[in-house]
Design brief:
The radius of gyration is 23 Å and the shape is globular. The chain is an alpha/beta fold and 539 residues long. Helices cover 28% and strands 25% of the residues. It has a nine-stranded mixed beta sheet with strand order 2-1-11-10-12-13-14-15-16. A seven-stranded mixed beta sheet has the order 7-6-5-3-4-8-9, with helices on both faces. The chain contains 16 helices and 26 strands.
Length: 539
């Protein structure tokens, strides 16, 4: 029996129609260049987005063509977020922290035709442009520097363009945006998001047990707009009508503290590194800026130590929400909201749950598999997490690329080793490639890192597997201490031994100035493994 429901497409143009009709007067504030704040409204932004779409059409961009951006988080980047998918083209956000060789590969692999780039990032763009199919470069001015010959000025392009309607519908299954994976174990791979995936992902961000975005919010994505659509926040804020604050390139703790306070931000999101730095500043200078407007601070991209949850909550009355996702998940997969079954549990038990990855977002289904098959949901057995859902990638851009990441029955293999509790809550024990296999048993590097980072003297810690002549591999810890703190390796190893099985305790611990990172802020453990791979065999 056929339904009698209307069959209207779930698309970015539908989100923009709602935004213009109901929330056109809400504001977007962004930090430009060296720090000046620029304020506009969604209605004004959509007018400019329509002109950008018209300009891109005049430059030959048609449905399915890729338009790349190499920009910080600001209002003109947001105009491209709206214009490019709404005209049926594909927004491709380039990661400005990648090496020029990788960017050349990515832009070529994606087939980018136009690049929109901030003028302070032009040296990076010019280092790879000649090796790409990019035909036209549009420069967003953040300084007074002239636009190089052969390139176009963003404001000039808009001024000369006839606006193009952003309300023309597109197929909901057509591509809206592209983002490439970090490429820590090989070449970056392209993930292509459909309009339907973006729309459904955006809709769920307003659920109370998800991000809980609402019209009354002022949302500040600290997570870069080049990374998985800034975790969906530019579209999630649009669908609920929340104000937006975009921090530009100033992501140091003092700049973020000032912006969070002056703009009365209520919801913000970023990786643990950013919030670790902010917590240190707030601890050192309490009460300098009023941050009472913040109702929630989302942390993702890496496991969150319990000390970060406690530090913000107990010393500064700011709630940390821990979420997990991947580029292939657009990116939200799970979120760790304390369930009602733990409402009367001890404070320690609630903190313990909040430090896990939590339960899947609506429509995301999970399972985990070991070498023996699908694991039981008992909170103990471990296996590789597999997921499926309406915004989960079904494959990578390019024929045959990354096929091994997908099961025969269509689930995505995440590479995360997890335990799943009887209620479907997941806890990541490690990445498959980061597990320490010692004497035939698994040791979780993530658990060791969390234990180390709970020590009051430790800022960050990374644990890697290092070859061992007797045990095959043993854990090795690299630790960054907080400023003006001092301790000894044996003190930290004794601390670790009080919280994990003794055979898990690393055989060695070294202090370093900084942990190498990927372009998205995650620990680059491959660099540490290369540096310390002979530690035990040459000792």
């Amino acid at each position: 029996m056929p339904s009698l429901s209307m069959d209207l497409p779930l698309t970015i143009p539908a989100i923009l129609r709602r935004l213009r009709t109901h929330f056109g007067d809400k504001t977007v504030v962004s930090r430009r260049g060296e720090g000046a704040l620029h304020q506009t409204t969604y209605r004004q932004m959509l007018e400019r987005s329509a002109k950008l779409a018209g300009a891109l059409r005049q430059l030959g961009i048609d449905a399915g063509d890729r338009v790349a951006t190499l920009c910080w988080n600001h209002d003109r980047h947001l105009e491209a977020y709206y214009a490019v998918p709404a005209m049926g083209a594909v927004l491709h956000t380039l990661n400005l922290r990648l090496h020029a060789d990788e960017l050349a590969f990515i832009a070529s692999d994606a087939g980018d035709r136009i690049l929109i780039v901030d003028d302070d990032l032009l040296p990076l763009a010019q280092s790879f442009l000649a090796r790409t199919p990019i035909e036209t470069v549009i420069v967003v001015g953040t300084t007074d520097a002239p636009v190089p010959a052969g390139m176009r000025d963003y404001e000039g392009v808009l001024a000369a363009a006839a606006p193009m309607a952003l309300e023309t519908e597109v197929e909901e299954t057509s591509a809206a945006a592209m983002c490439y994976t970090s490429g820590t174990t090989g070449r970056s791979k392209g993930v292509v998001y459909s309009h339907r995936a973006v729309a459904l992902h955006s809709l769920t961000l307003g659920l109370a047990d998800n991000f809980g975005l609402r019209e009354a919010d002022t949302v500040m994505p600290v997570v870069p707009m080049f990374h998985a659509n800034a975790w969906g926040l530019p579209y999630g804020a649009a669908i609920v009508g929340a104000n937006l604050v975009l921090p530009g390139r100033q992501l140091d703790a003092r700049s973020l503290r000032e912006l969070l306070g002056s703009q009365r931000v209520s919801f913000t999101a970023g990786v643990p590194t950013v919030w670790n730095s902010l917590l240190q500043l707030l601890d050192a200078e309490p009460g300098v800026v009023d941050l009472s407007s913040i109702r929630a601070m989302l942390v993702g991209g890496a496991a969150v130590p319990e000390s970060l949850l406690r530090g913000f909550g107990e010393r500064h009355a700011i709630e940390i929400i821990h979420a997990w996702g991947m580029t292939e998940l657009a990116p939200l997969g799970t979120i760790a909201r304390v369930p009602t079954r733990l409402a009367n549990a001890s404070l320690e038990a609630r903190y313990r749950y909040r430090a896990t990855q939590g339960t899947p977002a609506p429509f995301i289904e999970i399972r985990a598999r070991s070498e023996a098959g699908l694991i039981p949901w008992d909170g103990e057995a471990m296996g590789e997490l597999e997921v499926r859902g309406p915004w989960v990638a079904a494959g990578y851009h390019g024929a045959g690329i990354g096929a091994a990441a997908f099961t025969d029955d269509g689930w995505f293999r995440t590479g995360d080793i997890v335990a799943i509790d009887p209620f479907g809550g997941i806890e990541i024990r490690d990445r498959a490639k980061d597990l320490v296999k010692s004497g035939g048993e698994w040791i979780s590097s993530v658990e060791l890192e969390k234990r180390l980072m709970d020590h009051p003297d430790v800022l960050e810690a990374a644990v890697i597997a290092v070859p061992h002549p007797r045990w095959q591999e043993r854990p090795f810890a690299a630790v960054v201490l907080k400023e003006a703190r001092a301790t000894a390796p044996e003190v930290l190893l004794a601390w670790v031994a009080d919280g994990v099985p003794r055979w898990w305790v690393p055989d060695a611990l070294v202090f370093i100035d900084a942990i190498p990172r990927t372009s998205t802020g995650k620990f680059l453990k491959s660099a540490l493994r290369e540096r310390y791979q002979g530690w035990y065999t040459s000792a």
